[in-house]
Amino acid sequence: MKLVLTEEQEDLRATVRRLLTEHAPMSRVREVAVDKGEYDKELWARLAELGVTGLTVDEKHGGAGAGHVELAVVAEELGRALAPVPFVAVTLAATALSAAEGADDLLARIAGGEAVATVAGAGVSDGAPTATQSGGGWTLEGTANLVLDGQHADHVIVLTGGRTFAVDATASGLTRTALDSADPTRSFARLDFAGTPATVLNGDASGAVRRAAALTMAAEQAGGTAHCVETTVEYAKIRMQFGRPIGSFQAVKHALADMYSESEQAVAALRFAAWAADEDPDEADNAASLAKIACSEAYAHVAAQTIQLHGGIGFTWEHDAHLYFKRARADNALFGDPARHRELLAQRLGL
Q: Are 292 and 339 in contact (CB under 8 A)?
């Protein structure tokens, strides 16, 4: 087991961070957040040039052919910046298409950044449509709620009834409705299917998608947690109270130490999960659940402490702390909250 990043992986982190620092400052994040159902297409195109849009897709399909450790590194950086791009949704769609097979052209377009896709169905949305075979084709009926980036995706990969389907977003009978969210930096939609034609793929990708969802979300959470720790430490150095920096007070020191400890433990769980996804398939599901639990709880607590230690300014709209707090609370529930993943762990371990 190797939990320390290689030089190449650190270089990948540095490259993505530089790009986000230059092209995705918080002013841009706020700008995109106001426009519901949209994302930063220019930033997404730049990420595509780096190979981020098809990071774990096999090279024969135009992807980078990287592993889950690299995936986690990139997701961490996007989480640190609250980057307004559909990375999680596209990662899950690419995972589904790679696992199910049968849509190589679509997978190549997604990997190249030419198309945006999302996933709906078991484990990744609230509800799933049902599939019916009619003649030589399939149609979908029903509703999938809280579909990540569902409003502006070009394609929807649907997981239902043990099968995987690909649906064109312009297909007849598909209605997409943008949803409001407590987290303004994420886009969600309700997808209503009414006799919507779908292409059935080879196999059930639900297991691979649920595992990728937990891992990718945990990585984003770890990145957001680290950002909160770093910005709060810096603030504690410059905020003066009673003639001295607030970071010199013992109560603040203890709080910062706890935040740092939680962040590092979350990263350790994430590194193990990413390693297991690449090297130990038998442990991959359990490790992904452990990472989602650790990173969810760390982010929720650290983001709340960030607001607390920033004092009055931390509660204002002008400060960025509230955006991280809202992201932390939303991510906690997305793709299974800690209670759900503890339940899954207990089931897998026979407890």
A: no
